[in-house]
Write a structure and sequence with these properties.
The structure holds two protein chains of two kinds. By secondary structure, chain A is mostly helical. Chain A has eight helices and no strands. Chain B is an alpha+beta fold. Among the domains of chain B are: about 50 residues, no CATH class; about 35 residues, no CATH class. Chain B contains six helices and three strands. In chain B, strands 1-2-3 form a three-stranded antiparallel β-sheet, with no helix packed on it. In chain B, strand 1 and strand 2 form a beta hairpin. The radius of gyration of chain B is 39 Å and the shape is elongated. Chain B starts with a helix and ends with a strand. The chains are: A mainly alpha, B alpha+beta. The interface between A and B is large, with 53 and 40 residues.
Chain lengths: ~180, ~150
């Protein structure tokens, strides 16, 4: 059953068909969301919400196009919204945290399985750059496909990828120098 | 690396994104120095995580089904009648026309009514009959009268 057929089936009222799509794309969705948000829990929440959002917008999906890319664009934009909200929230919460730190000593938490995402090189990239890098390296996307998945112009996707690769190379060189 | 920095500065100066991207692509195709300064796929894979490496991903279905139960079913919103758009557009067009009529350029009133031709029946220069030539510019803002003595 193709994605378009599954979508058609959902539109005809068979909600269970949507499970096929969710199972098929959940790993891809998590990978993408994780590279935008750099936090596993946030990525899970974003995927959950994006799947629901995609379902309620199924009628807007053009069956001539790729469902994977359409969903990726929706998820990417949702993640960007989450990042913006988080930024606003962090601004207010940071004040409180500073005061709280002065009063109590918090126990350091152990390293999580995806901490390298949060503290490593990817922090140096913009969300667009790191998602382009992820799609290119892990999913084998071309510039045009990245553009489709990020809902941006192909030229923008090419620039994202170019900058991400240049930054990565420079970071790797820095690390080599530091090690030697 | 210096070469790549120059390229990036040049790209930063280029105002058009589409043009910038084509410059990037073309430059990378030709320039081996810059290509060397870009990370390859293997290096990019080392700093990113593949979907397959994530391990068992959470099953989103139970929560999704629960949300569907609590929320309204996924139906498209009732289509808004098209006449609302039509009325809105017509209203805006009306306002635009009125604004143009009130504030738009007004016709300049010439000293002469349009359609009246200038004619000099008789001209005299230094007490002798002269020939008068009338020349009107295209904008009809200025009119030159040339009078010359008749030999």
């Amino acid at each position: 059953m193709t994605d378009s057929e599954v979508v058609q089936s959902c539109l005809e009222g068979r909600v269970e068909s949507y499970r096929t799509i969710m199972d098929k794309y959940k790993a891809h969705a998590m990978g993408l969301a994780l590279h935008v948000l750099l936090n596993y829990q946030d990525a899970e929440d974003a995927c959950q919400e994006a799947f629901l959002k995609a379902y309620s917008n199924l009628r807007k999906f053009d069956s001539a196009k790729s469902f994977k890319n359409w969903f990726s664009a929706l998820l990417f934009n949702h993640c960007l919204d989450q990042l913006r909200k988080k930024k606003r929230f962090d601004f207010f919460i940071n004040r409180y945290k500073k005061e709280e730190k002065a009063r109590t000593v918090t126990e350091p938490s152990g390293p999580g399985p995806f901490d390298m995402l949060d503290s490593g090189f990817l922090r140096r990239l913009t969300p667009g750059e790191r998602t382009s890098l992820y799609l290119w390296a892990q999913e084998g996307y071309s510039g045009a496909e990245i553009a489709s998945a990020l809902d941006c112009a192909p030229s923008t996707a090419h620039v994202y990828l170019f900058k991400a690769r240049a930054k990565l190379k420079s970071w790797l060189k820095e690390n080599q120098h530091a090690a030697s | 690396m210096r070469h790549l920095k120059k390229t990036r500065i040049l790209l930063g100066l280029c105002p058009f994104k589409a043009w910038r991207a084509s410059l990037v692509r073309r430059h990378l195709e030709e320039c081996a120095v810059c290509r060397e300064d870009l990370a390859d796929v293997r290096q990019a894979r080392s700093v990113t995580i593949a979907g397959s490496e994530l391990g068992p991903v959470k099953d989103f279905w139970p929560q999704f089904a629960e949300s569907l139960r609590t929320k309204a079913p996924a139906k498209t919103k009732a289509a808004r009648p098209a006449w609302r758009w039509a009325i809105g557009t017509a209203g805006l067009a009306g306002i635009a026309v009125l604004t143009f009529l009130i504030l738009g350029p007004r016709q300049r009133t010439n000293g002469l009514d349009s359609g009246v031709k200038l004619r000099v029946n008789y001209a005299e220069l230094y007490e002798k009959p002269a020939q008068a030539i009338i020349f009107q510019t295209q904008e009809a803002d200025s009119t030159f009268v040339w009078v010359e003595r008749q030999n």
